[in-house]
Amino acid sequence: MPTRLPLTLGATALGAALVVSACASTGSTAGDSDCVSRYTDVLLAPTWADLRQEMVRGEGGPVAAVRIQEQGDDLVGGRDQEVVRVVDLLDHEGHRVSQVDVWRTGDGGWGAGAWSQCID
Fold first, then answer.
1. How far apart are CA 46 and CA 70, in angstroms?
2. Residue 72 in 3-state DSSP?
3. pTM confidence score
4. In 46-91, where do the E strands start and end?
5. What is the rounded CA–CA span in Å between residue 66 and residue 52?
């Protein structure tokens, strides 16, 4: 069963599909301990099919489909080393609502989250 925790994203479109959880990856920049890059919106599920279904499950929300943008050897550098797919969340008209990274969890499950880059 996918892990869902209370939503705290405000009015972002991604909020309809992903739920806030503990940070999946963090890293601070030198000189500012308050500035931390992390996955801010995290959804966890035991299988890829469950994760994909959970991303579009919103009650009439803006996410209608999931499109794999990059995977495997096609991944562009600069992403977390654990990322195995980059996924677009699409609205009912096929427009991208958000883009999330997808990774395998330590227990063999799947996770997805939006990367929030710290900028000093």
1. 21
2. helix
3. 0.66
4. 65-71, 83-90
5. 7
